[in-house]
What does this fold into?
Amino acid sequence: MTTVAAYAAPSAKAPLERTTIERREVGEFDVLIDIKFAGICHSDIHQAREGWGEAIFPMVPGHEIAGVVEAVGSGVTKFAVGDHVGVGCMVDSCRECENCKAGLEQYCTGGMTGTYNALDKNGEPTYGGYSEKVVVDENYTVRIPDGLSLDVAAPLLCAGITTYSPLKHWNAGPGKKVAILGMGGLGHMGVKIAHALGAEVTVLSQSLRKQEDGLKLGASHYYATSDEATFKELRGTFDIILSTVSAPLNLDAYLSLLKTDGAFVNVGAPEEPVALNLFSVIAGRKTLAGSGIGGIQETQEMLDFCAEHGLGSEIELISADQINEAYERVLASDVRYRFVIDAATI
It folds into this structure.
């Protein structure tokens, strides 16, 4: 065991505080990663405050991890000391079910092992990226290409793959009209990726406050959802609406913006149930769907795609003692567009 410094929530809704945690010894197929940067995802807040249900404490959040390989196990073939690597939302899965074998480890039928707030195969709690180092199986580690600096790459391990996977699955590309609902940590990456895939991109946001940013990042159009005229003007417009919003929405209103056979895909996960009139999907043969991160192979594909197109996250770098303040600012939508912790300050 190795003792490392970390920031943890000691209990639900409690402020995060500096502490120490134990990391396992480097096993045969493990890599020891010296964490350089860790993104702050809205999911971290949902879990640290038990918004999605009962959680495991103390909790060290963080599933947007970028760092450098410090040591490797004797059986490791994919990475060497000094490599730039990343870890996303999962650190293990059963590896045997149909989904795992198809490269869809995120949908492991036995349940993937989350990077934090989960129990590993030995029944030990997992601790995330708000820490100095982490030990991860090489099969759940990805390579960060040379074209991406580690600070702007860190949020791609969740925000990047969470938007890339559904955009690819629902065939966003040339000739497709894609709306990104919400212009935050996930949404701004959705805009960049959909544009790079060749789609015509529209941002749907509560206000026009971030319009200039949206257009700069690749959107062709930008509308305020607080304006009722938006829903009249855009009725029947989109092939895909990707919702990154983690608050309850009027789904019927948004489904009316889809073309026939269009898809409304949720990657934002509200804490409360939402209502739906089924005629909103019956009329127009529309799809109401969800999507969760991506498999390891697809996450690597996303990183390579982002490096090729020069797509890093727009970040605000903070020190570890600013984490609690950052949480409040995320909830107030006061970040453009992802807080990233400089792990050297932990």
Summary: The CA atoms of residues 238 and 258 lie 5 Å apart. DSSP finds eleven helices and 17 strands in the chain. The chain has a mean pLDDT of 97.
